[in-house]
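Pasting as-is:
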Amino acid sequence: MKVRALTLAILTSLSASAIAADTVDPLKKAFIDDSEIKLQFRLRYEQADVDNVDDQNQTTLRTRLNYKTGDIYNFFALAEVDDVRSTDDEPLIADYEYTQINQAFIGYKAPADTLLKYGRQRILLDNQRFVGGVGFRQNEQTYDAFSIKNTAVKDLTAYYAYVNNVNRIFPEGSGKDEHKNETSLLNVNYKGLDFVKLSGYAYLIDNINVAKFSTDTYGIRAAGDIKLDKIKLNYEAEFAQQSEGGDNPTSYTANYYKLGAGVGFNGFGAKLGYEVLGSDDGKAGFITPLATLHAFNGWTDKFLFGGAGNWDNGIVDTHLVLTAKVAGLKLLAKYHKFDSDFGDIDMGKEWGFAATYPFAKHYDVGVKYASFSGADAGYGFSNDTDKLWLTLQAKY
């Protein structure tokens, strides 16, 4: 009996150890062995000179720590913390001291090539013209959301997100740092054709804090490349229509469209574009409150309009973009001519250039400059403005 009891005790102990090991090993594998840690530093000097207002400069350092677990039963988690230190907070420069969670979500890799995410996450759709992260600023825009992405059909990606909060680029306590939402974002794109990538979307924004940001937008986008020997032609065409959504007090309908065509040869490129954020006869304009606005309508950010990205009279942006890559140095030059869609208003012009150079594998350095001038007097954007950025970045 004693031998039998001892044998039973040993077997029980071994079974418990096996169960414990079976539990611990996947956790160790997910949280330690298969995990990924990324560290990024971005040091920036920015100067803003606005005529008849002020000349300000600021130096900021952003430290970003990103941790992603491996998979455990198809679940994984990601956490990302940002910290920005600043010489001073300047009203003309939209970077601020802060420490906050930039991303924190749980993901699940479901059957049929489906990826689910719940929590604070980055959402970048198409070229970020309507939904993006404002990645140029030190404080990125992220979203508290549930999202689902499916790639079961070859070359077809279907994406949906329900957003209940937008974490904006402004500092905590400013009253502008968060916008409560009941927003649905749907985007479907297809890249199975050699000459074109197609996207269709419906962005139904219901902003609880700022009713005028509530909009229903439906659109389609086509963009692609055509290779002819050593020459590459590229193009884009997009159309969208917008009307009021949620509790927006203004009833309106406004259109957006963009046409662009370019050519590339031996590291050099040129592209001409024409973009219209339309107006409903001056009653309201086509707005883009979730966009990466800094990438469009000029680097001096003259047309942010409180985050709406447009005003009641609309914007017509005719622009030329030149690019070059020489010995690893990336060069970019832009010229914009701005007019109103309604009211025949000269909204000015802007030119700018940028250069970035990667070195020593983990580092890159960049300079960017933009100058805005020539707008009709009497409007909030009419002051001539010059801005300069110097950036040093390290990624590990």
